[in-house]
């Protein structure tokens, strides 16, 4: 390493010495660097430590030191994360790709064992459990058994990867949610390498909610699986030095408000502010009032408020949390000493950093809230939820009546469920789920749910019979402290039995409703609701039969399960009738701050974390008994419908083919605003009538064994057939339809998007997508980009992009183009029936876009007239230019390894 600034020094903690790269060495030359935001100081140290004169130069370090808070980002830096974090839905295809790279490496004459994670890579299996059974003492055991039987082949593959790849660990299923396991166990806060160099723990993760770890002062964010694979293989993450928005917190939450209410308020404020592509950093005296769990709740939802990260500094509360969660005392001492030595340890009254912009919130103004019915930033005060639902109902009913809703998942076991009551109506809550990483990491809101349940049981209240209830803790520690507080039994009395330890309802693994409930919804075209303590409530995500979806705190989830309807005014209407015949109101059972704090203080103890995480990688007997393939190369099974060798390296040569312009292209789809990766990437159940279902049936897979798209992410044949197949997708090229439908041109025949793609590709017709604002928002699903590429899409033209999906498109060799301000598909009078030619791409790539990042696009209409406009190339950095030239990140990395 170059060490141009003389930053390399020694830190002594106890009887051990560490090498560190001191920020003070830079601050002496550039005093303004002392006022850098906490997050940029982490990036500054990262560059000091990795300076090599090539990817990281002294000029890059100086650029951070002299950072102009108000400047538009234009300085590219190469960030090297300490580690990579994955969950199984995104992790399986990442490991599949690494296995395929080993095959390609051998085929092209290289050493396949060169393909290994160079940075520590940790995968937590948490996305595969589904709520098949609920409301019974055996729910967890039976759901876990079903999960294992459905996913055995995937799990065998991951265990092979754990043995075959160096630097790769897997946390087995039924342990916890990846972000909570990261917070409670995996995160180091200060990393120490084999040379005893100490530096901030940083990471990228294959899930957008990786940002939850920002609550612990660890800088990290979600990337696509494609970018994560490159990071694992030693490629730095190329990024523009961001603007940093400071969010000042002061005051204290009032009685009745929760961390969930706070994060929904923060999300709404930041969405309104506009922080896409920016860092958000929390500061102010209000931090002293926020336990680390509350900070993690706020950090978790950075994707929902649009920021790259939402970070809190390291302070005394960080140390307290590390001690509670059984981190070694030597690590806690190192964290304190390191951050104090770097001038990065936050204390009340500390001087404020320089920020690009600021906003502030008085915590005492936060009120109980929900978000819905379809977006996490659409916060509604609890007092106004009933009215907001009534106001939204006409639009929701119009959607409901326009579409034949699917009935229950035919693949699932028969869960115990209520028979038809005849009581369902618009607004009935049919799913009430305590779920997702956002809240189940937080002992305060979980304990609030338990105490509310205890109070409700004491009053003699019951959950309405049509409500599907579930409790999916983020880790097994949660169950331990709910037991210790004596409230787990009360939750179970209200049918909130533990259904699994993993992501369930929030990612669409809500499982089936009973057939009778489904039929009642279908017969009445009812707009029913779900209430979940999650972070995502996009259309079609939670359950295909549930149109209105509301995010809420865990205690409010229990409250709505008791009420059985979303259109209740808790101030005016009783939540139920007590055993004495008297009406019971929400205020009668809501626990106080004192009750919650006392339960947490007495029931959440260090020994719980010690016992749960003592042997976390071992797994249960089912995991241990898996028969695992041997060898450095994976033995692909041609008959497998779960894991297949992907085609990304087929026909690959040592040098990439020259980039050419895109000529005579057709639009595969014309899409509107807010198209999320949920709309693009396959997720949820596989319908027998869908192209993916037809493929599986042809392979001899029965409908009962279809499993989900998420479980089959390691099979590109299934996934490409499910891309753009979301039941709520509206393709304006096929008006009046909903789902993965398009028109093949020029004949105009209506067919599935997959079938049209195959027909176009057989005729060598390149394809494009036209879209509106916020294209690709939502989860960091790499298959949203992979599937797009495999369908033959060469370019996307959108009004704006969410950060991760734009990056993923480039990473798969798909060209992201952006309409110029004021222009759109509609203002240009484009219908999607045109023939498109994108000119200047080859020349632009060849000169690194030195002449500007605009390309001319000609759209020839059916009558021979032509619309000509210019679009902005969203290949944002020189490194991304290289990725695009090579056809994506993976071919680029493989070629570099072959040459080395």
What's the quick description here?
This protein has 900 residues and is of the alpha/beta class. The longest helix is centred in the N-terminal third of the chain and has 26 residues, at 139-164.
Kindly describe this structure:
Helix 8 (259-273) packs parallel to helix 9, helix 15 packs parallel to helix 19 (554-563) and helix 15 (443-459) crosses helix 21. The protein folds into four domains: 8-67, no CATH class; 83-365, Aconitase, domain 3; 369-404 and 420-604, Aconitase, domain 3; 662-899, Aconitase, domain 4, CATH 3.20.19. It contains 32 helices and 32 strands. With 900 residues, it is an alpha/beta fold. It has a seven-stranded mixed beta barrel with strand order 24-27-28-29-32-31-30. It has a five-stranded parallel sheet with strand order 6-5-4-9-10, with helices on both faces. A four-stranded parallel sheet has the order 14-13-12-15. Its EC number is 4.2.1.3.
How would you summarize the topology of this molecule?
Blueprint: E1 8-13, E2 16-21, H1 24-29, H2 38-50, H3 58-65, E3 76-79, E4 83-87, H4 88-107, E5 121-124, H5 139-164, E6 168-171, H6 178-186, E7 190-192, E8 198-200, E9 202-205, E10 219-222, H7 225-232, E11 237-240, E12 244-250, H8 259-273, E13 279-283, H9 292-300, H10 302-305, E14 309-311, H11 316-324, H12 329-341, E15 357-362, E16 369-371, E17 379-381, H13 385-402, E18 429-434, H14 437-440, H15 443-459, E19 468-471, H16 476-484, H17 488-493, H18 515-524, E20 529-532, E21 548-551, H19 554-563, E22 576-577, E23 583-584, H20 586-589, H21 593-603, H22 606-612, H23 621-624, E24 662-670, H24 677-680, H25 691-698, H26 716-722, E25 741-744, E26 749-752, H27 753-762, E27 767-770, H28 783-790, E28 793-798, H29 803-811, E29 815-819, E30 835-839, H30 841-846, E31 854-860, E32 866-873, H31 878-885, H32 889-899
Helix pairs in contact: 2-3, 4-7, 8-9, 11-12, 15-19, 15-21, 25-26, 26-28, 28-29, 31-32
């Amino acid at each position: 390493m170059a060490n141009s600034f003389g930053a390399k020094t020694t830190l002594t903690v106890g009887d051990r010495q560490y090498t560190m790269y001191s920020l003070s060495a830079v601050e002496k030359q550039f005093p303004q660097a002392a006022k850098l935001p906490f997050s940029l100081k982490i990036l500054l140290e990262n560059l000091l430590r990795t300076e090599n004169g090539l990817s990281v130069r002294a000029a890059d370090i100086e650029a951070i030191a002299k950072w102009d808070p108000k400047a538009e980002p234009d300085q590219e830096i190469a960030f090297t994360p300490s580690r990579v974090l994955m969950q199984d839905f995104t992790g399986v295809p990442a490991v599949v790709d690494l296995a395929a790279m080993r095959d390609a490496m051998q085929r092209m004459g290289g050493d396949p064992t060169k393909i290994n994670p160079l940075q520590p890579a940790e995968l937590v299996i948490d996305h595969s459990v589904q709520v098949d059974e609920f409301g019974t003492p055996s729910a967890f055991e039976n759901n876990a058994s079903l999960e294992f039987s459905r996913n055995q082949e995937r799990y065998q593959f991951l265990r092979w990867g754990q043995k075959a790849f160096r630097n790769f660990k897997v946390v087995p299923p039924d342990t916890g949610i990846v972000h909570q396991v990261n917070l409670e166990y995996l995160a180091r806060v200060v990393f120490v390498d084999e040379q005893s160099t100490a530096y901030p723990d940083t990471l990228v993760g294959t899930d957008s909610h990786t940002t939850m770890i920002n609550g612990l002062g660890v800088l990290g964010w979600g990337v696509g699986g494609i970018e994560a694979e490159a990071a694992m293989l030693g490629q730095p993450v190329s990024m523009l030095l961001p603007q940093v928005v400071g969010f000042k917190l002061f005051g204290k939450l009032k009685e009745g408000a929760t961390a969930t209410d706070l994060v929904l308020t923060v999300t709404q404020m930041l969405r309104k502010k506009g922080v896409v592509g920016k860092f958000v950093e929390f500061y102010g005296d209000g931090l002293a009032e926020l336990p680390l769990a509350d900070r993690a709740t706020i950090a978790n939802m950075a994707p929902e408020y649009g920021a790259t990260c939402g970070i809190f500094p390291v302070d005394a509360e960080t140390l307290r949390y590390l001690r509670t969660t059984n981190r070694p005392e030597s690590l806690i001492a190192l964290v304190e000493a390191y951050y104090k030595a770097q001038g990065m340890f936050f204390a009340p009254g500390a001087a404020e950093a320089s920020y690009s912009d600021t906003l502030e919130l008085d915590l005492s103004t936060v009120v109980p809230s929900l978000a819905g019915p379809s977006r996490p930033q659409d916060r509604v005060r609890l007092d106004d939820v009933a009215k907001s639902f009534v106001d939204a109902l006409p639009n929701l009913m119009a959607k409901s009546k326009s579409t034949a809703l699917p009935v229950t998942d035919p693949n699932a076991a028969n869960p115990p469920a209520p028979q038809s009551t005849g009581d369902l109506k618009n607004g009935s809550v049919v799913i009430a789920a305590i779920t997702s990483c956002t809240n189940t990491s937080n002992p305060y809101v979980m304990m609030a749910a338990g105490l509310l349940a205890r109070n409700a049981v004491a009053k003699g209240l019951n959950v309405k019979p049509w409500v599907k209830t579930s409790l999916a803790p983020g880790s097994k520690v949660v169950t331990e402290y709910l037991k210790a507080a004596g409230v787990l039994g009360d939750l179970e009395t209200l049918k909130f039995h533990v259904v699994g330890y993993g992501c369930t309802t929030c990612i669409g693994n809500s499982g089936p409703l009973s057939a009778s409930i489904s039929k009642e919804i279908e017969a009445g075209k009812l707009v029913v609701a779900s209430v979940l303590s999650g972070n995502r409530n996009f259309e079609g995500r939670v359950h295909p039969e549930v149109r209105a979806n509301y995010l809420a705190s865990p205690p409010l989830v229990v409250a709505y399960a008791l009420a059985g309807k979303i259109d209740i005014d808790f101030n005016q209407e009783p939540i139920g009738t007590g055993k004495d015949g008297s009406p019971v109101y929400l205020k009668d059972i809501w626990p106080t701050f004192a009750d919650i704090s006392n339960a947490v203080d007495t029931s959440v103890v260090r020994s719980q974390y010690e016992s749960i995480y003592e042997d976390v990688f071992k797994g249960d007997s089912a995991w241990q008994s898996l028969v695992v393939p041997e060898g450095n190369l994976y033995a692909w099974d041609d008959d497998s419908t779960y894991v297949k060798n992907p085609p990304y390296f087929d026909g690959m040569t040592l040098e990439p083919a020259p980039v050419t312009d895109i000529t005579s292209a057709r639009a595969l789809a014309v899409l509107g605003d807010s198209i999320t990766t949920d709309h693009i990437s396959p997720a949820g159940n596989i319908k027998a009538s869908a192209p993916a279902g037809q493929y599986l049936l042809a392979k001899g897979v029965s409908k009962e064994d279809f499993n989900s798209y998420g479980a089959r992410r390691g099979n590109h044949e299934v996934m490409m057939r499910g891309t753009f197949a979301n039941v709520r997708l509206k393709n304006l090229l096929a008006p009046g339809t909903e789902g993965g439908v398009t028109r093949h041109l020029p004949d105009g025949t209506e067919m599935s998007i997959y079938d049209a793609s195959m027909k176009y590709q057989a005729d060598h017709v390149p394809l494009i997508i036209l879209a509106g604002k916020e294209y690709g928002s939502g989860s960091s699903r790499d298959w949203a980009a992979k599937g797009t590429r495999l369908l033959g899409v060469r370019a996307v033209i959108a009004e704006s992009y969410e950060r991760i999906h734009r990056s993923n498109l480039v990473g798969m060799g798909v060209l992201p183009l952006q309409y110029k301000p004021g222009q759109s598909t509609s203002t240009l009078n484009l219908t999607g029936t045109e023939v498109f030619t994108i000119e200047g791409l080859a020349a632009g790539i060849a000169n690194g876009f030195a002449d500007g990042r605009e390309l001319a696009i000609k759209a020839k209409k059916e009558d021979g007239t032509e619309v000509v406009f210019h679009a902005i190339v969203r290949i944002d950095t020189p490194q991304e230019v290289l990725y695009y030239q090579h056809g994506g990140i993976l071919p680029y990395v493989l070629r570099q390894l072959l040459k080395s």
